[in-house]
From TrEMBL:
Pfam families: DUF559 (PF04480)
Domain (DUF559): residue spans on this chain: 210-282
Origin organism lineage: Bacteria, Bacillati, Actinomycetota, Actinomycetes, Mycobacteriales
Protein name: DUF559 domain-containing protein
Record InterPro entries: DUF559 (IPR007569)
Amino acid sequence: MTRLKQSDHEVSRRVADGALRKLTAEVVMDAELYEQLPPWDRATARAFAVGLTVDKAVVSGQAAARLWGLHTLTIEDSVSCYLPDGRTPSSPRQWPPGVVYRYGHMDPKDVHEYHGIRVASFTRFFLDIAHYEGVHAAVVVVDSARRQFPELTEEFLLDRLKAFPRYRGLTNLRRAIELSIPDSDSAQETRARIIVHEAQLPGITSVQPQVRFHRGTTGRFYMVDFLINGWIIVEIDGRSKYTTGNPEELEAALMAERDREKFLTNHGYMVLRIDPKQLDAPPGAECEFIRILRRALEQEPPVHLQQVA
């Protein structure tokens, strides 16, 4: 990533011929390297570039979460920023491409410097995400923060909200904190768990996240995303592991998945492998994942697992 100077004609030439890609008016990056990045890392690069470019603004929202290394529910198209001291942003027509200035107060105590970039504090950007993106997006980022920073307990986070009594997003964030857990492994796993919670299916008696299945006396184990009623395993498939690496690594990953599923099914567990797209629901209808889960709940568990269920 390079800071562009008007006098640097060589950099300008490489931008013109496509070798470099402009992330902002002042920051460029190797175009081939940028295209090779997964979407979430491209979003992080854009957030970092905006943070380097803006003179006084503070990065917030999902972009701030990315800069802190947290998972987010979606890939944002723009970077949310605030001006310090409650200053009013200029007309949207004057905003740089890919930047959205939010109207609101950013207290100096909620501004942190990260690699030379002004970034909002956790609670502050949690509130922004809860307000602009909704409860699901807020649970994802709170889950991610709690996994990386165990000191961020539910009690601690709820107590922090007392310092923000009138902020937008407060009700949504409080709900998100109450729904969060400290050991979620991915954004889509969190999303699936919240969808199950909201569906209120009558046949569900328990949902256990991040369950270990030990493999004999070797000390090795399989970890599953979550276990429903003690016998229905839900795994949210992340496609990135099947689209990166060389053919040998791909084959090894597929073999490991087959061995894992065989182990679980041989012990009587039902395994539901869910693609993130199956979590999407059309307006007024339930998602395919819930329909699959309804059918699974109609079945009886194996006898040796019935007392668990």
